[in-house]
Design brief:
Radius of gyration: 16 Å
Distance between the termini: 9 Å
Largest sheet: 4 strands, parallel
Shape: globular
Number of strands: 9
Strand content: 15-25%
Number of helices: 3
């Protein structure tokens, strides 16, 4: 299949993900031309069921015409106010697989800090569990300031370079 002209990538977070899901389901998926142009969707920070979209889940590092989703929490944490279950999508943003294996710390490319610097390379491991992304942070004084076990606010920042480099790889295959 040829590369579509003007390919579309959707990147959303939190409430924006709810809007992006509606946009895909109620507008893009009904328009053959737009549907062909939508090459990737990053639908991050909300629970998305496996059959909620008329688009397949990205299950490997170089697929296109698919979507990714994850919600970051501390390892072994089961949140009371968030839904989790085996029918909710979670793609590991370090490995870009949907399996439940812990990622290798050496594959973590760093965290995007508020000052726009990349810090703490090779510090995080992650795994998918029941539609959640469990994050194992290092035992470092800076990370002890994370009092919450919910890392929703950092869903992109924790994996910024991994996402960026993987996007380049995916786009090179289109």
């Amino acid at each position: 299949e040829n590369t579509p002209s003007n390919p579309i990538i959707i990147a959303s977070h939190s409430q924006g993900t709810n809007h992006a899901v509606r946009l895909i389901n109620e507008y893009i998926s009904l328009n053959k031309n737009l549907k062909k142009r939508l090459v990737l969707s990053y639908l991050i920070g909300m629970d998305i069921k496996k059959n909620e979209l008329q688009m397949k889940v990205c299950e490997s590092t170089n697929e296109s015409n698919c979507f990714m989703s994850w919600r970051s929490f501390n390892e072994n944490y089961y949140p009371r106010k968030w839904r989790y279950a085996s029918n909710i999508v979670s793609v590991n943003p370090i490995t870009f697989y949907t399996d439940s294996l812990w990622s290798n710390k050496d594959h973590h490319m760093g965290i995007l800090m508020p000052n726009q610097k990349i810090r703490f390379k090779k510090t995080i491991t992650t795994r998918n569990n029941l539609g959640m992304l469990w994050v194992k942070l290092p035992k470092n004084m800076i990370f002890k300031r994370f009092k919450s076990k919910n890392y929703h606010r950092a869903d992109y920042n924790l994996f910024w370079l991994n996402i960026r480099e993987n996007l380049k790889e995916r786009l090179s295959k289109i």
